[in-house]
Design brief:
The complex is a heterodimer. Chain A is mainly alpha-helical. Helix content of chain A is 63%, strand content 11%. Chain A has helices at 3-25, 30-51, 62-92, 112-124, 152-159, 161-171; strands at 101-106, 128-134, 139-144. In chain A, α1 (3-25) packs across α2 and α3 packs antiparallel against α6 (161-171). The chains are: A mainly alpha, B mainly alpha.
Chain lengths: 172, 264
């Protein structure tokens, strides 16, 4: 990694850690800002290449943050509650209408963060859990509470299609 | 839902209710009174009494005040005991760095766990630093923060491998020992501070009626340090964090390698 990349990576991690220090301390007093700058500087110096391996300029791309915001608002506040409701209904229903099984879901992403975000999104959605991944074959093994199809592309459309679009816009 | 489930649910609810009644009625034995006893009253009134600084410790955190000021010597010995425990551990696993080293590439948990851990690790360190630096103001302190700090390396060992820790963060067994020693030397210097200023007391934070020794100011610029308390906490934080990391490094060494290195 050349110098510019190193500096950019450090800056991105530093800003994140500084903000996180203020949140963890629940304070923006001058003392906390001073301590936060020092601590974030030291920790970022040690960990920035571990957190950001390549292409640190992505962290400063406003469009990626915009899509992250849209992702958060839409999936966390709209889609997820609906899925919660669906799973709760299945649990409380006297007949417990579930049809569980593990299906293969292909994905077409390269970066570590993109793949991880996709997997975490699937797991975070009630009703589906990623139980394993095949990195070389680019497939997730997903436990699905109500298996509607075993066909890989159909599964992809039903389970991960929407997330994949956002993962690509945010991280790829 | 079958009848059995329903009965089980009601039974559990009744059981919890009964246990709560027993606890509320005092069935678990003597419960501490809500009245403040004289000893507690002394500390609560004095630890941050800005109007009468005769007995104060310059810290609103009564627990930290006792820990590092009123009964600081006790904490000092506790830290020494933990250090001896670490030394004991190192002695039992008497291995040199070179003998333990083994190249491991494609090891560890899945990509998802690894990526998340890469992201979470610095955040754990930040939280631990925040706990250490606010130990004189809010609950927490050096030891607690050190334990949180050690969670970071533990996560890396679990998700990647111990050689990842040694190669990416340069955190080897010997480095941990050095960090731990630096923390302990800092504590020892702070303990001896009043002694160096010509007073016959050790471990003095703020001056007390029986000894008017040198004292550090209660704040440095905007940062409220409570005299020596913040520095004690930071030193203890480094010592405990590095101590636990060292033990995790030793415990995570593969057994066969360890046996070979010891000569079994």
């Amino acid at each position: 990694m050349n110098l510019t990349k190193r500096v950019l990576g450090f800056a991105a991690v530093f800003l994140l850690l500084f903000a996180f220090f203020l949140v963890a301390s629940a304070s923006v007093s001058p003392a906390d800002i001073a301590m936060g700058l020092i601590v974030a500087g030291i920790v970022a110096a040690f960990t920035s290449t571990m957190v950001i391996k390549e292409q640190p300029h992505k962290a400063f791309d406003v469009r990626r943050w915009f899509w992250a915001l849209v992702y958060f608002l839409y999936f966390f506040l709209v889609v997820e509650p609906l899925c919660h409701f669906d799973v709760a209904k299945r649990i409380l229903h006297p007949k417990m209408p579930i049809n569980p099984g593990i299906v293969r879901v292909p994905y077409n992403l390269k970066g570590d963060y993109a793949v991880t975000m996709l997997a975490c999104s699937i797991t975070n959605t009630p009703g589906t859990v990623v139980v394993d991944l095949d990195g070389n074959g680019r497939k997730f093994y997903v436990h699905w509470i109500d298996v509607k199809t075993m066909e890989e592309d159909e599964c992809r459309k039903a389970i991960s299609g929407a997330f994949e679009k956002y993962a690509r816009r945010m991280f790829e | 839902m079958s009848l059995k489930d329903a009965v089980l649910g009601v039974a559990m609810a009744v059981f919890l209710l009964m246990v709560s009644v027993v606890v509320v009625l005092g069935g678990t034995g003597w419960t501490p009174s809500t009245e403040i006893r004289p000893l507690a009253k002394f500390y609560l009134e004095n630890c941050f009494n800005v109007f009468n600084r005769t007995w104060w410790a310059a810290s609103p955190e009564a627990v930290t005040s006792m820990l590092w000021d009123y009964r600081g010597i006790d904490t000092y010995y506790e830290t020494s005991v933990f250090f001896l425990a670490v030394i004991g551990g190192v002695t039992i696993f008497r291995v040199t760095e070179a003998k333990l080293h083994r190249k491991m590439d494609d090891v560890g948990l899945s990509l998802i766990v690894k990526t998340t851990t890469r992201m979470v690790f610095p955040l754990v360190v930040i939280v631990s630093a925040s706990v250490a630096l606010h130990g004189n103001l809010t609950p927490g302190g050096g030891f607690q923060a050190g334990v949180i700090l050690a969670v970071g390396p533990l996560l890396l060992i679990a998700a990647f491998s111990r050689s990842f820790l040694e190669e990416n963060l340069k955190l080897s067994k010997d480095r941990c020992l050095i960090i731990r020693s630096v923390g302990l030397i800092a504590i020892a210097l702070l303990v001896a501070l009043p002694l160096m200023a010509g007073s016959l007391s050790l471990m003095q934070n703020q001056a007390k009626p029986w000894s008017q020794a040198l004292q550090l100011p209660e704040a440095v610029g905007p940062i409220w340090t409570s005299g020596t308390l913040l520095f004690f906490n930071v030193a203890e934080f480094l010592a405990v964090g590095a101590g636990f990391t060292l033990l995790f490094l030793l415990l995570s060494a593969p057994e066969e390698e360890l046996k070979r290195a010891i000569g079994l």
